Each structure stands twice: as C-alpha cells, then as structure tokens.
Amino acid sequence: MSELKKVTVGIENFQELIKQNKYYVDKTSFIKTISDENVALFTRPRRFGKTLTMSMLKYFFEMNYDNPGDISATVELFKDLDISKDTEFCKQHMGQYPVIFLTLKEVKGDSFRIAISKFAKLIYKEWVRFYNFINKNSDINEELKIQIGDCKKACYNISQKKFTDSPEEDSSNITDSLMLLAQTLSIIFKKKAIVIIDEYDVPLEKSRGKYYKSMVGFIRDLFSTTFKTNDFLEKGFLTGCLRVSRESIFT
After folding, report:
1. In 3D, which of 149, 159, 162, 196 has the Cα closest to residue 51?
2. Using CA atoms, how far apart are residues 212 and 115, in angstroms rounded to an integer?
3. Spatial contact of 225 and 180, defined as CB atoms under 8 Å apart
4. Digit-coded pLDDT (tens) for 5-60
5. Which residue in 27, 84, 136, 145 is a FRET match for 50, CA 20 to 30 A apart?
C-alpha cells in the first residue's frame, strides 16, 4: 500500500512541498498558459497561493548553473505533474534560464531608507549567489566589471545602513541593479534572464502615510529599467494584491 500524502498549510516552497510528498493541487499547466507573456502581473488576495505558484515557475525555468546541460533534478521534480506530459515544451523551456527571484514582503520599515536597505539586502544576496560565476567568466569586459562592482558595493553598503548624503541618491544607486544582474547572467549563461518579484506591493502598502511618494518613485524606476527597457529579460512575473495602475507605477 502506497504511503498517503500529507495535508499541509503554509509551505510556499514548491520543491519542499513535492519532496516531502505533501498534497499539491497540480497547477503546472499554468506554466504553458503564461509562456507567451513577456511580462505578467498576477493580482490575487492574500493566501491565494501566489508565492507557491511563483516558486513553481522558478523551479521549472531555472537552469543548473554548475552544469547547464543537466536538467535531471528538474525532470525528477516535475515527473508526475501535468506539465511533464508536454515533452516538447519541457525540452524547450525546462531548466533553460537564469532566474532572479525576489520576494518583497519584508521590504518595509519606519522610514524610506530602512525599507530601501532591506531591498538592497535582497539584491546583494543575489549578487553573492552568482558572484563565483562572474569572477570566472572571461566574456565580461572591464567596464561591465566596474559597474558590477559598484552596484554590489552600493547594495552592500545600503543593506548595512551605510547611507549616502540623501535617500534619493541611495535609491538611485540600486535602481538599475536588477537590469544589470540580468545583463550579467545573460552574458555568462548565454540565455536571457527571467525575473520574478513576489509581493511587489508590500513596500507600497507599508509606506502609506509615511514615505509613500518616495517608494512609488523608487518602484516605478526599478520596474521601468527591469521590465520595460531591459534587453536582457526573457520573461518577468510579478504578484501582488494591487494593480500597478492604481498605484501610479505605470500609465
């Protein structure tokens, strides 16, 4: 008699859910549904499964950085799920892209600078995750290496609350960080990057009545360089409860 699956609540990591043999409502066909989108925003209420779905996308698309040709771990993870039935789609997309994944649920604080420092910490962790690949790569020219070094240093300083003379300067120093990281990964792995931002609207909600205008300006500039004018972006996915038009992020 096969072991019964366990019912659980609150696990938001797709890999953890599958490997622990928990019940999972198979939403993997959603991957094909959104595969033609360049940038997509999914707005749903809290506790609707947005983070788990974004985690699913991450594990499906993300390549094996140490051995880009080896997708065996990803195949194993999705082997009993609906998406695996479309072998041609999986051959084209499964484990084929560098993925940048951020959740902004902790980007908040009593001041704009405190919130920005938490965002900078997230970006810095992504730079650190890929930094060994950056150092070993010979295709990154000296000019780009200087930009990478400056961005990484700025993210670290701001994450440690080592601020400049003005909040505007702090935020402008990391506005292009995601675009620059996507560019770097595209050069290293010869594939455009996928950027996933979960709970994009938390920083906006937490800034109301305090520093909302500054946060809207920062998010608008960040999203513009990341999702609208980024030649190194394969796909972008965002989740939140609020529509970007309501928050005046874009026209």
Report:
1. 196
2. 11
3. no
4. 666 666 677 888 888 877 777 889 989 988 888 888 877 656 666 888 899 999 99
5. 84
For the sheet containing 99-103, what is the strand order?
39-43, 233-240, 193-198, 99-103
Both tokens of residue 16? 């953890």
Amino acid letter, residue 195 = V
Amino acid, res. 203:
P
Tokens 């405190």 — which residue?
114
Contacts of 141 (CB under 8 A, 6+ apart): none
39 phi and psi, to 5 degrees?
A: -135, 130
Helix orientation angle between 212-223 and 167-174, rounded to the nearest 10 degrees: 20
- Scan for tokens 């938390």, then name that residue: 202
What tokens appear for 216 in the block? 């809207």
- Can you tell me the distance from the alpha carbon of 119 to that of 114, in angstroms, rounded to the nearest whole number? 9
Tokens read off for 72: 């065996």
CB 202 within 8 A of CB 108: yes
Q: Which of 248, 132, 116 is nearest to 175 (CA)?
A: 116
Please provide the size of the chain in residues. Answer: 251
List of residues 6+ apart from 200 with CB closer than 8 A = 41, 104, 219, 223, 238, 239, 240, 244
Tell me the pLDDT tens digit for each residue of 193-211: 999 999 988 999 999 999 9
**Alpha-carbon gap, residue 100 to 191, rounded angstroms:** 13
C-alpha radius of gyration, the chain, whole number: 19
The burial class, CB within 10 Å (0-12 / 13-18 / 19+), for 79 is exposed
Instruction: Give the number of other Cβ atoms within 10 Å of residue 217's Cβ.
Output: 18
- Structure tokens that stand for 208 in this block: 């109301």
